[in-house]
Amino acid sequence: MFEIKDKFPENFLWGGATAANQLEGAWNRDGKGPSIADVLPSGKDRFVIASGQDFVWQAEAEKYKYPNHRGIEHYDRFKEDIKLFAEMGFKCYRFSIAWSRIFPNGDEAIPNEKGLEFYDKLIDECLKYDIQPVITISHYEMPLKLAKDYGGWKNRKLIGFYENFARVVLKKYQKKVRYWMTFNEINSAFHFPVMSQGLVPSNGAKDFTNIFQAWHNQFVASALAVKIGHELNEDLQIGCMILYATSYAYDANPVNQMANLKQMQDFNFFCADVQVRGKYPAYTARMLKEYNVDISKLQITKEDIAELAKYTVDYIGFSYYMSMVTEVTRDDQNVVSGNLLGGVANPFLKSSDWGWQIDPMGLRIALNELYDRYQKPLFVVENGLGAKDVVETNGAIHDDYRIDYLSQHIVAMKAAIADGVDLMGYTPWGCIDLVSASTGEMSKRYGFVYVDLDDKGNGTLARSRKDSFYWYQKIIKSNGKVK
After folding, report:
1. Which residue numbers are catalytic?
2. Which keywords belong to this entry (predicted)?
3. pTM over 0.85
């Protein structure tokens, strides 16, 4: 009855994670339309443009570079890449289906068959090696037209467009793909709504009323995807996916403690509360008041509320890269960056090359917090270290820093399992080098597989194995034995 679990489950899903817009390339081939990701340039311009008044496209686009247009040419080299994943021993591979590859504008009634053909081949290639696909239906790549012409996710029409997209891919692949997630890092819109909601200042990003309405529409769309999936095949597992950053109050000052509680509720828990529990949490009214949401403008129906309650997700997928610190009593604190958010520097932690603070214990805390709150299976679907890798003259890539980072987080996951957490799997981010979502760079590398391509687009795109490739191969073979 009170068994202590001291190892990973035998059916644990070891693998890796990517997103279509960051590695596929072929951004305008075989009928694919432009997505939001396709108009976000690289480097320092990326967040400036993304936070600007409108999407930069066509007339001004020639001023910038768009590395994801080429990606790492996974669209043409996926067989080579999946073979490398199989060599590592992957049990699963998390990837996304580019919405604009299936519905180029997002509002069509009939899907693009060429796009479906590509994912037919990709899924079959995974299954050839007994790698289970884990598919994110929408991962920061909504069709550009839905943002520009419909105003993004604040428009209720997008519920129907997403429902049509989800129905097509779920129906087509329901016999081959068991694990799905509806939206990638849905809560990221709290800080940066352009990628997940298609909102920029020109179409309402500065008004939290629009962000909240967009969330509601996404919650309903997610519930409809769960409904469709379960009606097609009761064995399908359809989860939500959130960005989780374990949060600490800077000190014992009750003011900072209360601020941290609100941070946890508003950012870490709100979207999951709705999708997992099936209803808006008690603190929603407080949250709406504090962010000046005009409740009279919200479009929420009784039917919506009923669907949220009936079609909750089966598991919780989440990304974890770093923790953060809440401090509201002083203005002179050092600030650090992070995964689409920042915070006060934690003096007890070291940072990555890009300033993200490294906190393996924070992952154990996150797993306990989420499982205690929801009692649903958890899936760490993103975790990793973005770093600058050096290729030695003999071609070797010694990335001990990555091995150290991932080892510590695997130890933290094992400890959380001993704590009683039901953990399904682990898919480190960017298992093969790809274009960074936050910077649009290739030099910020996460992968076990090195891709010969630099920030200027120079390179052969040849794939090579880093030291971490062989290390992760042993981790999977031993089912999580770090040493």
Report:
1. 382
2. Glycosidase, Hydrolase
3. yes
